[in-house]
Amino acid sequence: MSTQALNLFRHPSLWRAGDVSPAVPNGIPTGHAALNAALPGQGWPVGEMTELLTDCSGHGELSLLMPLLAGAEAEGNWRVWVAPPHLPGVSALAAAGVRPRQLIVVRADTAGERVWAIRQALRSGVCSVVVGWLDRVDNALLRRLQLAVREAAIPLILFRPLQQAQHASPAALRLQLSARAAGVLRIDILKRRGAPANQPLYLQGAGFEAPPAMAAMRCAAPPVLALTA
Question: Is residue 24 part of a domain?
Answer without folding.
Answer: no
